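Dear colleague,

Following up on yesterday's call, I've attached the two folding results inline so they're easy to grep. Please treat them as preliminary; we haven't cross-checked anything against experimental data yet. The first protein's sequence and structure tokens come first.
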Amino acid sequence: MQSDAITQGYARAPHRSLLRACGLAGKDFGKPFIGIANSYCEIVPGHIHLREAADRVKRGIRDAGGIPFEFNTIAICDGIAMGHLGMKYSLASRELIADSVESMVIAHCFDGLVCIPNCDKTVPGMLMAAARLNIPTIFASGGPMLAGKRSDTAGDESADLISVFEAAAAYQNGALTAASLDALEENACPGAGSCSGMFTANSMNCLTEALGLALAGNGTLPAIDPRRLNFWEESGRRIVALVGEGKCCRDILTREALENALVLDMAMGGSSNTVLHTLAIAREAGIALTMKDMDAVSARTPTLCVLAPASRQHIEELHTVGGVMAIMKEAAKIAGAICEDALTVSGETLGNALRRAPDPDGRVIRPLDQAYARQGALAVLYGNLAPEGAIVKRSAVAASMRRFQGRARVFESEEAACKGILEKGNIHPGDFIVIRYEGPRGGPGMQEMLAPTANVMGMGLGESVALLTDGRFSGGTRGACIGHCSPEAAAGGPIALVCEGDSICYDLEACTLTLEVGEAELSRRRAAWKERPPAVTSGWLARYARLVTSGSEGAVLR
């Protein structure tokens, strides 16, 4: 075992002495040392209950004969960080999380690792670390929040965080009363868990099941469901078994597992952020993966499930009808779509797990012959405006907006765009909003822009304007919102050359994104373009900006 390096032999007497100070006894030095990377903190709703998660995982580890050692990582709540300087730190925190887990595991010679993430960047950050470390690893998330309820509308309409963002814009537009906004604020987020739609956190937690790195239910079993307690304990027991079996992370995280996860992502309508994170995870695992690979999977995978923000259904409803495994069971009917021989941390193959899953219920999960769409929920668009690609959540775009041509309305930052969108009479139907210099390097940090997209909805423009950015969107964004436009403006990408009033066209069927300007004129603009000075010149973000790659490469650090 790796822990032998600090527990065995006379030369390790000093190490054992320190371990004894932590409460270990002589009988413990031959047992597996299991690290528990817990992202517990008191300001992220998805993480406030993770102390209990860690306690239950520890109980399972001890029951199975292992020694648990809990440590913590940082966690940023993207909802609280949204719309101000804090959002620039969100994506960057993914790298800090990966590096901190790597540091703790190697410094202390853990034999196995349990990751307890929940909200957005903790999941991919820990997945990147797990792939990098390649020791036995299992993921046991905190689980999704239940949906809230609206008291300001007739009936029993569900609500979530995105409902509040959109309602705030509707209030500014005069379409909602202050009392209604207050009532929604109080009821939309009822308690612990990752926000209740198919947003980034829940998307990534679902993908861990498809990757084989979590037990079934990890992505959909609600945070407050009592069955979570047993789930965490079983995860603790399984990590000790994985150490005994010598099953390391990359024995499970294979090319086939990644392709299984991509199929699930496209079939379930995952967040557009999953593209960034999957590229980064594949890189850490030494697996060649590009956006073109993802686009190919999307082209042959129908959309079988549409949850919030693309519908009123939430994660808890998906869990009720069979969760991730039920979606994958139906997708597996497409010849060659799913590798059923892929290993999982449960000790069985994915195929065995799928055979126990229920058939589509027809409401939350549709059968193949009644799919929501013949293509996957995410699309990669290419063209002279995005030579390296741009991402759109196709399943969240209204049918009337599947093809659109509009007039460019150019903003140099998210803040300027929000001001422009909320100014009555400034944005009109047929406009194509462009927000640039918000990419990984230019932002820096490629911040999520839920505020401008929610403002578009709140101003009643959701089905008449489109939005393009080199930044990214919340998993809760809906509408004709195209992100990750690469290369970014700060790197001199074509998005930097767009002028007010230019014609921009996209086609979600043909997967094209075109700036309708002649090549001679683009060449003239390119020659006149000048690189901007860095937006941030000190601290962690300045280092991040110097090292980060394009969004088309997963925005990883060089």
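Below is the second protein, in the same order (sequence, then structure):
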Amino acid sequence: MYVVLGLTVLVAHISCKTNTNDKVTVHDILVDSTTVCLQNAKNNKLKLKKRIEFLYKAYVDNKSQKNDSIKNSNLLKIAFQLYNFKDTIFYKKINKEAQDLSLQIKDTLALAETYWNDAILYSDNEKMDLTFYNYFQAYKNYESVNNEYYAAKMMYNMGFIQSQIKDYTGSEISTFKAIQKFNKLDRNLNLYRSYKLLGSVFRDLEEYEKALFYHKKALTYIENIKNNQIYIEGSLNDIGLVYQKKGDYKKAIEYFQKVLINKDLKHNNVWHYARIIDNIAYTNFLSGDTIDVLLNFKNALTIKDSLGNIPGRIVSKLHLAEFYAARGDTITAVNNAKESNKLAMQLNNNRDVLKSLLLLSKIDKDGSSRYLEQYVTLSDSLQVEERKLRGKFTRIRFETDVYKEETEKLSEQRIMIVAISVVVVLIIFLLYFIKVQHAKNTALEFEKEQQKAKEEIYELVIKQQSKLEEGRLNERHRISEDLHDGVLGKLFGTRLGLGFLDVKGDSETITKHNALIDELQTIEKEIRTISHELKNDMFSSEISFIDLVEDLIKNQSEIGEFQYAVLFDENINWKNINENIKINCYRIIQEAIQNINKYANAKMVHLEFNLNEEKLKLTIKDNGIGFDKKKIRSGIGLKNMESRIHKIKGEFFINTVINEGTNLIFIIPV
């Protein structure tokens, strides 16, 4: 590629530079050629392919220039265009070159811009830790050259990122620091955005009075800004949402209605119009006023559909699901909630995924426990991830300050080294090495403690679930025995007593008496049947063990995005297999598949049941990354499987190869 790009230099000189009779240097020609090619690359009238060609020519010409601020400026312009062209691979390369050159020529402003560029790229890819790191590096560099405005913008961006991972304290601190700088500069629009962010933070913290205070304060900073209607309407909507969360539905609708005073809203900003009518409908629904609610919900959804606004569709579907559930139309409610869940998962919008799962657990009776389990699992994993990110953000700030202090110390030590001797240098280096090693060991110990705590929490959850299941089965058995031994016995005694009575009267009375005795006998049979059914475990119902296993694998494959194959030996008569064995086999499969989803990155899972010499063999095989048995043997997942297999007097074997997959084999006497 570089050979081809190199050959284009001559073409670039001919096609991009202008002719002149003045005497010019090679450097001047290259600068002129780069500038013209960059202008052509920005020309929207040219075809994209041609613009990309000019951009590559500009890069080749610029590469031949001397390392100065002009070359660095051109690199940043080229990187910006590559970002617009969505060529992220080459963009990273150019931005890194600009970063290295900025360090070399000590161009602090350009260096800050390269970090800002990387922050935007990582933000697009939702890599929060790297986004925060690069915003912080940009902030430090702008701060070092007293560029208060851009330093404040970086601090605001850091506050916004912190609010996304629920680091509300950190977000509040960062935003207030940004506000202090914006106040000095009279940057009203930036102050509006900062106070608006604080309003959102306190709304999420459910501190509604503070949220209202900051949202209303934000409005004061845009009173004298031209074309401020869109900002005012956005803030009015935010204030309405705070009142809605607070439960003051009358006030909420009042603020939403203020937005609709703008008669041109539907024409100029149809997306915002759809959001407002949806918010009004939902607030009316929460207050118990159902007039035109369904109509407004549907109108809002229609507009969002036409705009391809997936986040808006998710919210509308959730609102419709709640509405239909309240009306008792469970089927429509479940369908809307499922559609919302599917759309949220497509966007990786975990907040709305959680909302939809929680709603489904409440309205879908058949899948309630499954949705609740998914909700708890996702919620726990997100909380762990958010805690990790908050820790990373703290370390980024802390470690940068430590690094700065250590750099200053090293500068002083260089003077001492020259004055004293090489021996002092070796001692300092040794001490520094020991310090770094100690820090690494401390970090590793901390990670081990975290992992241990997570394992203990997970083990407690598993034990709790087992106790709940055991309690449920015991209660079924107790009710069964009470029906059989108590109620049934009394009915039997009553029927015998009636049978021995010498009833006198006409033939019609005697016939009725006999019919009632027969009816009592029928009731006894029904109670006996119910008693026996209550004693059956989960696999004695109409749903077979095979169906349950296949449903489990199917659902987990959708989560883990893997293909699967399930084989059952036709010689196995599952009706004759002990219920306890089937339950433990089911739980073992459930644990194994969850481990595959969490750690294996497998694309294919193979599950097979075989029966040989009165021994049931369960094989679970995947083509994932495998693991080191010596290191992982003590994991909670394996412990649970070992515990279950020992309960049913079985054996457990593991065959695993790094990067080739894992084969779990369970042998159970039946």
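For the second protein, one point worth flagging: Residues 422-500 form the longest helix (79 residues).

Best wishes,
A.L.
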